[in-house]
Structures are given as structure tokens and as C-alpha cells.
Amino acid sequence: MGRSPCCEKVGLKKGPWTPEEDQKLLAYIEEHGHGSWRALPAKAGLQRCGKSCRLRWTNYLRPDIKRGKFSLQEEQTIIQLHALLGNRWSAIATHLPKRTDNEIKNYWNTHLKKRLAKMGIDPVTHKPKSDALSSVDGQSKTAANLSHMAQWESARLEAEARLVRESKLKSTSFGSESSDPAPQLNNKTVVTTGAPPPAQPLCLDVLKAWQGGWSKSTKGGFIAGTSTGNGPDLESPTSTLSFSENPLPIQPVGPTNAVEYYDNEGGMVKEEGEEEWKGVTASLQDVVFAVETPWSPESRKAENGHVGVSNFMEGFADLLLTNADDHNESERGGDSDNGDGNDRSEGFSYEENKNYWNNILNLVNSSPSDSPVF
DNA sequence: AATTTAGGCAACCGCTCCTCT
DNA sequence: AAGAGGAGCGGTTGCCTAAAT
């Protein structure tokens, strides 16, 4: 729109911040709040543009920022949310308390993306690359279709969740936030364009829908259209998927007892190495195999069981993290990894699965309102 | 020990969206 | 309704450090 960037002003400093600058910014915001970022540098006595100040504050100086290694749970959340939301780092960050979008973005680009690539999965589309599955006849196509459907369904759920959210907004008042004198940091739309700032981000609705499915379906099953009780039914004729109330005929890959491998600080016990991704392709095939049958119309009829996007994403995330777990275990002298994916599968129960999603939901539920926005 | 290479992260840049006038 | 300005997001860059040679 023809507006000149604020940083074009000559004489403004760029580059790394000095401790003195940090102190000035910190002191000013603590006393006055940031107010208008554009006006802040002059008031705070900084030779920086407002944009730079905002970035420094949100990514580094904010007191509620958690630094250090990402826990396995955080990784899992990122992977799943990225599968759902794509590169919407701010939306993802909403669900990771004390993590900044920039940090998550960097972590994705430097760690998680590489893991996906090593697994033969396109980190952008989350589609399994064909070569990763080429050893199994017909699977690559199925996997690609499956992934595509998962993505499509994700997008659809997103759209529907937005409708749900908007309908909620019409009936519910969220006036409490406006009483906060502190400037709002996350007052923008985090999910879709054109929507008003959500009281709760999209993922909450989506995952709540999933949660509803978990809570009401029978063991291992998933019902996408199940209402959470306080929201509209998400069942939609537009869905590419149909879900039954019958048990899922498969067990997801991997134990997913990620918590077992946390240290007390919530950090990873060990960083991944080259070795631990060996055999990942086989595990990926396990996932594909597992979900393939329910996705074919014939087998749906035959087995009377379906798999939803959640299971795909879950297996997907588990796959990433489980391999690290396996490696961790072997590093500690365990001999669990014998190359047989079935062993891992058997370790994942319905309760664990449910608990896993509950954990994600707890995280989701707590982050938008609980996380200190300022 | 010196140099090169790779990885990680902080910060910048350009764009889009939202709000206000 | 349209334009200007502010804020935030996502992609990218560049610097610093650790690892490898």
C-alpha cells in the first residue's frame, strides 16, 4: 500500500542488540508497556526501529520465554500442528507456551524438517516420498493418496472449525481481555484470513472435535463428527472421510511413551543421531500399511472400521519421535529395537493414545488464555 | 594448530492483514 | 469506500560457534 518500511530511516541501528539496548527496552516496557511500537524507540531512547524493538521483545526479552531444548512433547506437538496448520508458526506457537514462533520456526527448519527428509517425507506437504515406499508394491500411491486426503481433511476441518468458532463468538462475550491495560501481543488472527481474532485458536476446535471422537468412540476408534458438547456438530457432508464408531483395526506405530524419556527439565535426554533414523522407512510403511485398508472403500465395508486424520497424523508424529525413543532405549542398553515394528505397535494402547491426545488438548486449552500474552 | 565446513539461532526484510480516518 | 499507517507473520540472511579435516 505504498507505505515505506520503518527501518528505512537512516541512522537507525541494525544487527545484534547490546545489553545496554536490551536494558533500555526492558526498562521502558516494564514501566510503560510497549504501546505503539513505532513510537517506542524514541521514547525509550533507542536508535532502533519499532519493528526491531518488537522483535527483540517478543523473541528474546519477554519474561515468559522458555529457552533451551524442546521436549519430546513439544516436538510432538509441533509436528502434529504443522501437519495441520502448515507453516503458520504463530498459530503453532499459540499452543506451545513460552515458545516463540521464531524459535519454533527455527527448530522446525533445523531439526524436525531434516528428520522428515531423512524419513523420506516431504516436510512441506507431509507426503511420503514415493521412493521411500518403493519397495512395497502399490503402497506409494496409496500413501500419497492417504496423505493428500489427510491434508484435504485437515483443511476442511479448519474451515469448519472456523465456522464453529465464529458461531461461538456470536453467542459468547470475551470482554475480559479488553480490560487488560497491557498491550496485546497476540491479538491477531492466528488461523485463517478474514476471520476475527479468535477467542481460541482454530486448533482447539479441531482437536476438541478429535477429543470428542476419542471420548465417545469405542476403543481405538475416532469419530470426526462428534460434538464436544458445547459446540456444533462438526459432521459435514463435505468430509472426505467417514468415521464409524467401531474400533480402529490397527494400532499406531510406536510406544509414544515420550514422557518416559524426558529428563526432569522437560528436555530431551538425547539428541538424535544418524543411526536412529535407520529403519524409519520400514516404520513408515507400518503406518501406511496400517491405515491403508480402512481407507479403501472395499475394505471399509469389509472391516467396518475407519481411520481418521488424527490417526494418520498421530502415527506420523509418533513415527518421528518413536525412533528417537528407540534409539534412546538402545543407547541405555535396551534391546527393544529388533527391527520389528510389531513390537512397538503392541506397546501402544488405547489409553495411551487417549492420554496422548488429552495431553495435547490440555496444552492447547491452556496456551491461548493462560500463556502470558504480555 | 590452523583452516574449512556445517549447524544453530538471532535478526532483518518484505509482504499481508487489520484498524482507523 | 478507499487509502494510510501500524502490527505481525513467514521467509531469508548473516553471524557465531562447534565439529571436522
UniProtKB/TrEMBL annotation:
Matching InterPro entries: Homeodomain-like_sf, Myb_dom, Myb_TF_plants, SANT/Myb
Location(s), subcellular: Nucleus
Primary location: nucleus
Top-rank taxon: Eukaryota
GO cellular component, one term: nucleus
Keywords: DNA-binding, Nucleus, Repeat
Molecular function terms from GO: DNA binding
PROSITE patterns for the chain: HTH_MYB, MYB_LIKE
Residues annotated as domain HTH myb-type: 9-61, 62-116
Region (Disordered): 168-190, 225-255, 326-350
Signal peptide (from-to): none
Polar residues bias locations: 170-190, 225-245
Ranges for domain Myb-like: 9-61, 62-112
Name of the protein: Uncharacterized protein
Source organism per UniProt: Protea cynaroides
